[in-house]
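Human: Here is a favour to ask of a fellow structure person. Comparing notes only helps if you start from a blank page. I am asking you to supply a protein in sequence and structure-token form. Write it directly below this note and I will take it from there.

Assistant:
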Amino acid sequence: MEILVIISIIAVSGVIILLLREFNCWYLKINERIQLLKSIDAKLGQLSLEKESPKPEQYKNHTWVCPKCGMINPPENLACTKCKQKYT
């Protein structure tokens, strides 16, 4: 009878350890993904700060594409001919 109790305790302990291990691995994977997403967000933020929007004076002889509707506009227009989005 004592051997059966000891075997039962060992079996239950093994199951609990396996369940805790699975939970721990799942939790660590979520934390790794969150950390990766935060680093991607930070790098995209740096890229957006580095990239400046062109000014009309810099590109007097070039056409420009409206970011809102995609219309190709002549360089002298300071607003889109289709949707009236201002060129900044």
Observations:
- Helices lie at 2-50.
